[in-house]
Amino acid sequence: QVQLVESGGGLVQAGDSLRLSCAASGRAFSAYAMGWFRQAPGKEREFVATISGSGDFTRYAGSVKGRFTISRDNARNTVFLQMNSLKPEDTAVYYCAADQQNRILASSEGYGYWGQGTQVTISS
Fold first, then answer.
1. pLDDT for the residue 89
2. C-alpha distance across the termini of the chain, in Å
3. How many whole angstroms separate alpha carbon 36 and alpha carbon 20?
4. Which of 73, 68, 77, 85 shows the shortest CA–CA distance to 13?
């Protein structure tokens, strides 16, 4: 069983930065790929970024590539999402997720564990 708790969301202005954190409980955190997804009001959940268990491999959605960076600290069982140059269209609830098969998938169906989400709001 893996429990995930996100933090770091908030209200900022366009162009600002935020760093989201996701703390994981349970064993073998370094064996899991971790992903970030987001869901805006009235829209489906969409992929943001993912990172392999070792941290050696990452993958990003085109809409955030070059602005967002996913990273992890396996000693602290935590994954991060550094978000720079934020835009109003980045407004959403952000979720972290864990894939025990370490596949760095863009599809949410591959992730078996999810956090409760953290709200990110970007004002123009």
1. 97
2. 40
3. 10
4. 85
What DSSP state is assigned to residue 42?
T
- Which residue is listed with tokens 């703390």? 23
pLDDT band at 27 (very low <50, low <70, confident <90, very high): confident
Q: Is the pLDDT of residue 25 over 90?
A: yes
Q: Give the chain's length.
A: 124
Mean pLDDT of the 57-67 span: 98
Q: Tell me, what DSSP letter sits at residue 86? A: -
Write out the two tokens for 55.
Answer: 């941290």
CA distances from 85 to 33, 34, 68, 106, 116 (A): 26, 23, 9, 22, 25
